[in-house]
Amino acid sequence: MSDSTFPTPRGVSRRTVLRALGSGAGAAALLPWLSNDGLLAFTELQRRMAPRAPKVVPAVRFATLQALVEAIIPADERSPGAKQARVADYIDLLLSESEDEVKQEWLDGLAALDAEAKARFGSSFAGLSPASMDRLMADISRHELEPITPLEFFFKTTKRATIHGYYTSEIGIHRELRYKGNQMLPEFVGCATEDGKDCEHCKQKAGK
Q1: Between helices 130-140 and 100-121, what is the axis angle to 10°?
Q2: Which of 61, 101, 147, 201 is 20–30 Å from 28 (CA)?
Q3: In-domain check, residue 7
Q4: Is 113 helix (H, G, I), strand (E, B) or coil?
Q5: Which domain holds residue 25?
């Protein structure tokens, strides 16, 4: 188990993810939020279910990025995961609006992740089995509060960017959070899972 605020790593609890994001824990040198134009482009990608056409990340590394974000927030019984939410596209759009130095850091991080996967398991990260992915991510998240290596720092930054992207997407907002727009509520009812029960309001199961 990682010493990080985020659990290691597959099957991360959505509630834990939101709590960690809200607290700002483990802040890294994060990418900024998308510009208004970037958000419009991201919304259009999701609306049209457009084919992936990365602006910055080459195709072979984009496959690595997709596999990594899905491993961080996988699909579960409540909602689809980061891959279907187009989180890799979100990160690529962020990179397209970033300085060249930031772009290169991400490309170097993806290359380092693939190199580590090949050295240990003989495959790129996207080609690893779930068990091998878990082992590798557990190792590179071990010092997540204070990363030591460039790969550890990259993984920490990618986790944060993945959370931002997921909860910016239509899937994250409407299918995971069940946001239905502004409406008058007679009272605010907290999530029953805090009391160890299944919640009839958000449909979250106890212990998830």
Answers
A1: 120
A2: 61
A3: no
A4: helix
A5: 14-180+189-195
Q: What is the pLDDT of residues 101-148, one digit of tens each?
A: 999 999 999 999 999 999 999 999 999 999 999 999 999 988 877 778
Domain membership flag for residue 50: yes
Cα within 13 Å of Cα(44), Cβ side? 8
As a whole number, the mean pLDDT across the chain is 77
Output the pLDDT for position 172: 60
* Torsion over CA: 142, 144, 148, 152 (sign): positive
Is residue 11's pLDDT more than 70? Answer: no
- The Cα 152–Cα 79 span in angstroms is 28
Angle at 42 between CA 41 and CA 45, to 5 degrees: 85
pLDDT of residue 181: 53
Do residues 10 and 137 touch, judged by C-beta distance below 8 A? yes
* Spacing of C-alpha 178 from chain mean position: 18
Write b or e for each residue in 8-31: b if 16 or more Cβ atoms lie within 10 A of its Cβ, otherwise e.
Answer: bbbebebeebeebbeeeebebeeb
Burial label, 208 (beta-carbon count in 10 A; 0-12, 13-18, 19+): middle
- Helix-helix angle 150-166:87-96, to 10 degrees: 110
